[in-house]
Amino acid sequence: MREPTVVGTESNGGSVGSIAQSPPPQALLERLKDYGQEDAFALWDELSPDERDHLVKDIESLDLPRVDRIIRCSLRSQGLPVAAIEPVPERSVSTVEERTMDERERWWKMGLKAISDGKLAVLLLSGGQGTRLGSSDPKGCVNIGLPSGKSLFQLQAERILCVQRLAAQVTSEGGGSGSAAIHWYIMTSPFTDDATRKYFEGHKYFGLESDQVTFFQQGTIPCVSKDGRFIMETPYKVAKAPDGNGGVYSALKSSKLLEDMATRGIKYIDCYGVDNALVRVADPTFLGYFIDKGVSAGAKVVRKAYPQEKVGVFVRRGKGGPLTVVEYSELDPSLASAINQETGRLRFCWSNVCLHMFTLDFLNQVANGLEKDSVLLPSC
Fold first, then answer.
1. Region Disordered: what ranges (predicted)?
2. CATH numbers and ranges of domains, the chain
3. Fewer CB atoms inside 10 A, N or C side of the chain?
């Protein structure tokens, strides 16, 4: 019988089969120390050579400066002081129901004209799995219990088809000839991409042309503890998860889809989250309003129902600062329940329901690290 081999110095009580005590790569260890993540090598001495190699490659694949910026930003946002945020100015919000029928009809027609001219694309954020719905499938594939049995993907595809027909009809009545298809960009994740593609193929794209649907994957980011340290999935692998809806900007850039949009003549992008059965995909009124205002970014919002409602709200960062979203878990209870004495509403009442409109120029600027002002439009 072959005798076991002892390699290197004693460890783990000098047990037979100990691993040679070669240290982690010094340069990589120093980089981890710079970002306070050296604990990723905490169990190095217990790893086999193959596991060590796997860990090194896993760490080297991370964009450590970007990850560190995200972690620091997240940690700074916790427990925001009262002086750090202000309510969204009333002038930044416009309620459709309070506008005249002439205005609303003008926005509707303006939006349909832009759609007919091929200037609008739809961007779906669909990287998550339906775990909270009791399924490991992509959220858009899950049967959500509608009498029709339709999935979220089917509902949204059918709404795109409907808007296309409306745009063609209105343009034809006006003597025009535009009838461009709405291109649908669908962001998946490494965990949902294959299943999403197969689902669309199996359902023949729900009546859409296959070449008007483009799938692309968002990135992943390390999972971290409350103090910002990497969580290890195994002793030789950092736990990772999709990088959230905010990952759409870098994903669009890395996949060169911003250039693809420009080539197609797209100027406006309607962006929304998949888990919304009521979403008005490619809403002509929202698009027309957005074009009319000449802004670079906008959002539909709904009034927060009560202080403890678990939904993020739009705020202004400081006096005259940019509009941004503060999650319900980050908002101090005293701020969440504060009342605007003039309106009788909550001071921080405009909820983020992930319904956005962007110009292509704005997406390019954000992808390159720039910011622009935005306006809000409540859901109607």
1. 1-23
2. 26-61 (no CATH), 100-221+238-295+354-370 (3.90.550.10)
3. N
